[in-house]
């Protein structure tokens, strides 16, 4: 039987407990989950792709069926390269659905061999977004309980560097 491989793409700037909730639930469904950090040139990221990969790897090191990678360009091309058949997308609120639905439809038009699976974020994390976490952290607010401890430290370091420079 062919291995069921899912790709969980995103900017992960930074990874949150909401993202980790999706990953932990996905490993129960798929043989392999690839967390794929997208290089999005239109978005101004706080963390470099290398920093994002390090933070994600730290959090998934106890899960042998999860790997972390990065990709440029079209998700469908990357998925074909790694022989994945499912793009995994997390949904927090109904407002996420419209955007994600259009992306899934476009991806399906590019490759009808690949499906998109939407997973609702767990009830404890539906209000968390990387953007909100960065905003709170930039103002010196607490982000404990929203991101892993080492990610919270990295956020604090980033923003203290920005305030100095």
Helix content: 40-55%
- Tell me the CATH topology: Rossmann fold
- CATH level 1 name: Alpha Beta
What's the rounded overall pLDDT mean?
Answer: 91
Number of domains: 1
Low-confidence stretches: none
Radius of gyration over C-alpha positions, nearest whole angstrom: 16 Å
The fraction of residues in strands falls at 15-25%
Query: Largest sheet, order of strands side by side?
Result: 3-2-1-4-5
Number of helices: 6
CATH superfamily: HUPs
Total count of strands: 5
* CATH architecture classification name: 3-Layer(aba) Sandwich
Class from helix and strand fractions: alpha/beta
Largest sheet: 5 strands, parallel
Topology as a string of helices (H) and strands (E): EHEHEHEHEHH
Distance between the termini: 55 Å
Please state the overall shape, judged from the principal axes of the Cα atoms: globular
């Amino acid at each position: 039987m062919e291995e069921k491989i899912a790709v969980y793409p995103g900017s992960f700037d930074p990874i949150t407990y909401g993202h980790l909730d999706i990953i932990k639930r996905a490993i129960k469904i798929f043989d392999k989950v690839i967390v794929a950090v997208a290089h999005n040139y239109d978005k101004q990221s706080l963390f470099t792709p290398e920093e994002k990969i390090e933070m994600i790897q730290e959090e998934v090191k106890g899960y042998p069926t999860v790997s972390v990678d990065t990709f440029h360009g079209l998700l469908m091309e990357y998925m074909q390269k790694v022989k994945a058949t499912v793009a995994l997308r997390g949904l927090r609120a109904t407002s996420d659905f419209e955007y994600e639905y259009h992306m899934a439809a476009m991806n399906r038009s590019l490759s009808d061999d690949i499906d998109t699976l939407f997973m609702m974020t767990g009830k404890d994390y539906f209000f968390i977004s990387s953007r909100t976490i960065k905003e709170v952290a930039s103002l010196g607010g607490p982000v404990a309980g929203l991101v892993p401890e080492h990610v919270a430290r990295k956020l604090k370091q980033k923003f203290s560097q920005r305030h100095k420079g």
